[in-house]
Amino acid sequence: KHRIIMDVDTGHDDAAAIVLAAGSPEIKIEGIVAVGGNQIREKTLANTLNVCQHIGLDVPVFAGQENPLVRKRVNAGYIHGESGLDGPHFAPRTKLAEKERGVDFIIRTVMENPGEITIVALGPLTDIALALILEPRLKDAVRHIVTMGGSMGMGNATPSAEFNIYADPEAAYVVCSSGVPLTMFTLDVTLQVTLDDDMLSHYRKMKTKTSTMFCDSMNAYTEACQRHGFDYPAMHDPCCIAYLVEPEIFTMEKRKIDIELKGELTYGRTVMGFVDPTAGSQVGVTADAPAFWRLLDRAFTRLP
Ligand code: BDR
Ligand code: CA
C-alpha cells in the first residue's frame, strides 16, 4: 500500500484525483493539504473539505500556503470558476480543517516515517518547496514525490509555462533542484487522458453520490476548457494517482528537469534534459487512457 500525502489546489481535476485515491485500495491517504493555486487558498481549502465530506473520506485536511514563495499570486479561476470548483452542489459543511499548518504536517509525517511517505503534489509546489527548505533532511526521508506540472511542448498558462509551475516557478525550482526522487506528469502525457462525451455519459449513468459530483464538476470543467480552445478536459491530476496504483499505464523517461526563472517570455517553463538513465527524476511520456478509466470506474464502485 502506498502511504501518501496529497497537496492539492482543488480544482476540478484535483477533486477527481481525490476520488481516485479514496476509491483505490492500493492507496492510504495520510492527510490532504490545500495550497493556493486554481483559486485562493481559502477556496481550495473549502473545496477540499467539501469533496472529502461528500465522498465520506475521513482524513485530516490542512491549510497550506496562501502565496507563492516569490512571485505575485495568480489563479486559474478562468478554468475552475469563481469558487475554484464550480458545478457540484455540496451539503452544508461540518468537516473542519486541522489546526496544524499544512507544511508542518508534511514535515512531521515524513520525518516520523522515513522511507514510507509519498507526496502527491497536484498544485503549485509552494508547500513542498517550503517543507524542503525548513527541513532539508526531508529529501532523504520522503519516499517519492509525484507531481503534475510542466510541459515539454506548449504551456497552458502561457505559451511557455504550465499553470502549476507558472503559479510558483521558484518553488518548482527548489523542488526540482533538491535531488529528491521526483516523477513529473507534464501536459504532454496528461492531455492524452481526456473526458469525451461518451465517457461523461458513461459516468452520468452510474448515478451515485460521488459520480454525480464528478459529472457536475466535469460539466463546468468541459465548458471552461472549450472556451479556452480544448475539445475535452484532461485528467491532469488523477494521472499521478493512477501511476501509483498501476504504473504500467504510463511509459516514462528519465530526464533532468530545470525550471526557467529569468526568461521574459519563458518564465516558469520546464526545461527537460536529454534522456539520461542516471537522472534522479523521470517524466511521463505516454498514457493508456482506457486503463486509466478502468481505475476510475473501480473507484466509483468503492465510494458512496
Ligand atoms: C494543472 O493546473 C490546474 O489548473 C489543474 O488542477 C492541474 O493541476 C494543469 O495545468
Ligand atoms: Ca491541481
From TrEMBL:
The alphabetical list of record keywords is: Glycosidase, Hydrolase
- Occurrences of domain Inosine/uridine-preferring nucleoside hydrolase (ranges): 4-293
Keyword field contains Transit peptide: no
What's one GO MF term for it? purine nucleosidase activity
Q: What parts of the sequence cross the membrane? A: none
> One Pfam family from the UniProt entry?
IU_nuc_hydro
**Cellular component annotations (GO), alphabetically ordered:** cytosol
Q: Which InterPro entries does its entry note?
A: Inosine/uridine_hydrolase_dom, IUNH, Ribo_hydro-like
Top EC group: hydrolase
Enzyme Commission numbers on file: 3.2.2.8
Asked whether the UniProt record includes Hydrolase among its keywords, one would answer yes
The record's Gene Ontology biological-process terms are:
purine nucleoside catabolic process
What name goes with this protein? Ribosylpyrimidine nucleosidase
